[in-house]
Structure formats: structure tokens, C-alpha cells
Amino acid sequence: MKIAIQGELGSFSHEAAGRMLPRCAVVPCARSAEVFDRVERGSVDAAVIPIENTLAGTVAEHADLLVSRNVFIQGEYLLRIVHNVIAAPGVKLASLRRVLSHPVALDQCRDFFRRHPRVEAVPFYDTAGGVKHVTTNKLNDAAGIAGRQAAREYGGKILQASVEDDKRNFTRFFLIRKIGRTSTHFSQQKREVAHPTMSVGYRRLIPRGANKTSIAFKVKNLPGALFKSLSVFALRDISLSKIESRPMRGRPWEYVFYVDFLRGDDEPARNALRHLGEVAEFVKVLGIYPAA
């Protein structure tokens, strides 16, 4: 299977893809939009994307793309994030003056830079990209911060392992696939529920053992609107594992709510979504999948 990721080979997305689909061929993409483009065009079979980190929060761009694109979440994976200082062979820790990595990774390794005040934290476009840069150019005063996969991919040497501040650092990844063009683009005038089980053809998208659902919905700015929306789950004893709001692109001061709930494609879940469709401006089922 060809699996698209955002970032270089050796990145945490590469590692997550390999763990979710051990024999996959990873296709690196420079931008997140390119990942979704490839999935929609069918030039790859699926994609693995980070959606949430326990320290940095939601990956906003990916949350927005899940709503606007014709893709469906089929699985999730929780990857323990271990940051390592990786340099070209022969480089010593004492000779480092710069460490390159993604800004989020640098921010998660503040203690390392406090212990090594002469080392500058240099923001770079990708964790694995930083390692690729220092090893390819054989820099003798620089290193990257990335996972072990990057060291293997580019022949780097780990100078110091596990430099992340918080050892309970996890990133949640989604496996996404293409769906056909359906009523997944919404207007203000018409209430819609884009639910894959409403079409027999979508049954094949829901994996066996699916027990978790991700949705996005928008409510009108009226008193009690959010309460009414959430009550459709409470009335059916459906547990929510996440709720978050995001600004709606192109519509200032309007928001989309993202909700994960712990049910698969069963009657209570379908009834809750139908009920939600009666009180919400739109509802989109982003995916139904086995919980990690």
C-alpha cells in the first residue's frame, strides 16, 4: 500500500505509518494539503496524519482539512514521542552549537537547552528534515532533534537519547482514506448529515471492531444551542471523549465543534446523529474506527 505522510522519511509520521501498516510504502509530502490531494486523487491508497499531541494540542490544519475534504478516518494510533539529539557520524555532543528541529519539538526539549546554554535551538521545517540536513551536509557543529527512525533513515548517530521534558508525550495519528463525493460540503440554508451508513456503499469504509466515532458540527448562535446538541448523546448514555471548537474558515466568528464519542456504527449512535441533524446547522461524520 502507498501511504502519504506530511514530512520527510524518518519523521514521527513515518514511524506511525510503519506501525499501523507494517509493509506499506511511505510517500513523503512537503505540505499537509498535498497529503489530502493525493488521497482524493487516488495516487496513494491512504494517509497517516497527526491530529493531536498531548502537550501541543490539536493539529489545527489537519482538523480543518478533515472537514473540507472527502476523506474518512479508518483508524487511530497513539505514538509515544521520544526526542533524540542526532548528528552526523563523528560529531561530539561537546562540539554542538546548533540543534535543528520543528518548533514544537524544540519547545518540548527545553531542559536540554537549559543544560547546554551554548547550543542554539534553530527552528526547521521538520524533525527528520533537520537530521537529513545535518547528516547530508556533514555539519560538525550541528545536530537535529527527531525520533530514532530519522537516525536509521539518514545514517545519523544518536548523541543523547530521550531529551523530551515530559515522558508522557504522545501523538495521536489518524489513518484516512478517500470517500466518494457526497453531501460533505454544507450550506447555511440546508441542514445536512453526512453519514457514511446512509449509503450502502460506505459500509466498506467502516473497519471491523469500530467502536469510536469522530464528527464535526455547527450550531446556530442561539441560547441553548450547544446544550441541545450535546443532549442527544447524554439522552442515549453515549460517552464523549473529546469536544473542541475551531473557527470556521471564511465565516468570521462562527465555529465548528469537533466531538469524539465512544460508539461505533450502532443504532444508538445513528439515532443520536439523526437527532443532532435536527438541531445543528450541519453534521459531518469524519470517521468510525477502532479506538487505539
Q: Can you tag this structure with a few keywords?
A:
3 domains, 292 residues, D-Maltodextrin-Binding Protein, domain 2, alpha/beta, 5-stranded mixed beta sheet, Alpha-Beta Plaits, 6-stranded mixed beta sheet, 16 strands, 27% helix
Corresponding CATH architecture of the largest domain: 2-Layer Sandwich
Give me the oligomer status. single chain
CATH topology title of the largest domain:
Alpha-Beta Plaits
Q: What is the percent of helical residues?
A: 25-40%
Q: Percent of residues in beta strands?
A: 25-35%
Give the ordered list of helices and strands: EHEHEEHEEEHHEHEHEEEEHEEHE
Task: Outline the biggest β-sheet.
Answer: 6 strands, mixed
Number of domains: 3
Low-confidence stretches: 182-192
What's the shape? elongated
- Would you tell me the overall average pLDDT? 92
How far is it from the N-terminal to the C-terminal residue, by CA?
A: 21 Å
Structural overview:
With 292 residues, the chain is of the alpha/beta class. The protein folds into 3 domains: 1-80 and 169-178, 3-Layer(aba) Sandwich (D-Maltodextrin-Binding Protein, domain 2); 84-160, D-Maltodextrin-Binding Protein, domain 2; 182-292, 2-Layer Sandwich (Alpha-Beta Plaits). It is 27% helix and 32% strand. The chain is built from 9 helices and 16 strands. It has helices at residues 12-20, 32-41, 60-68, 103-107, 110-115, 127-136, 148-154, 225-234, 267-279; strands spanning 2-6, 25-29, 46-53, 57-58, 71-80, 84-87, 98-101, 120-123, 142-146, 157-160, 170-178, 192-194, 212-218, 240-247, 255-261, 282-289. Strands 1, 2, 3, 4, 5 and 11 form a 6-stranded mixed sheet that branches. A 5-stranded mixed sheet has the order 8-7-9-6-10. Strand 3 (46-53) and strand 4 form a beta hairpin. The longest helix has 13 residues, at 267-279. The radius of gyration is 21 Å and the shape is elongated. The two termini are 21 Å apart. The model is unreliable at 182-192 (pLDDT under 50).
